[in-house]
Amino acid sequence: MIRIVLVDDHPVVRAGLRALIDGQDDLSVVGEADGLERALAVVGADRPDVVLMDLSLGDGKAGGAEITAAVRALPEPPEVLVLTTYDTESDILRALEAGARGYLLKDAPPAELFAGIRATARGETVLAPSVAATLVRRTTPGATTITEREVEVLELLSRGLGNKEMARELFVSEATVKSHLSHIYTKLGVDTRAGAVAAAIERRIIRA
């Protein structure tokens, strides 16, 4: 039996997932959590094989990537399979770098979700097709790749922050921020801050 913990801040979503998963003979939901502290407590107590992790947790809670990193830092940690609505490059990279084994989208058919859970429990990598395509684009020779720091700059740009505010957020100088912006403009083929944000959203580098 594969033991699963659900991490999602929507009780209705957790209830729906539990009903689906518990209908499988070899899968069992043993716990639920809606944030970091509860997730660590439940994982420590129930010793699941897989944590099914949402990325976007509201009300100022720690994000799914942060919770993933904390879960994976535990002794003998479970595997983490992300299940989210977002397939932007920034979300994908943060989740995988935090230690997630796989990344599926919430519009996946139940059969795909069940297969993903089983594969994750075996230690296999599971990626939704659009997620795999995004990662392939990043590793294609000659492709223009936005760096992790440039993604952070784009996200701050989308929030309307100025150079001084971005420098403070990123703990760098304003000159460094301007350098990042210059590289971003060149890579995205734009010449304004608004154009950079629009292009990044269109290419699913950051969320709208």
UniProtKB/TrEMBL annotation:
Coiled coil: none
Listed Pfam families: GerE, Response_reg
Record bears the keyword Transport: no
Gene Ontology biological process terms, A to Z: phosphorelay signal transduction system; regulation of DNA-templated transcription
Listed GO MF terms: DNA binding
Keyword annotations: DNA-binding, Phosphoprotein, Transcription, Transcription regulation
Organism superkingdom: Bacteria
Entry-linked SMART domains: HTH_LUXR, REC
PROSITE patterns: HTH_LUXR_2, RESPONSE_REGULATORY
PANTHER family the UniProt entry points to: TRANSCRIPTIONAL REGULATORY PROTEIN NARL-RELATED, TWO-COMPONENT RESPONSE REGULATOR
UniProt protein name: Two component transcriptional regulator, LuxR family
The species this protein was found in: Nocardioides simplex (Arthrobacter simplex)
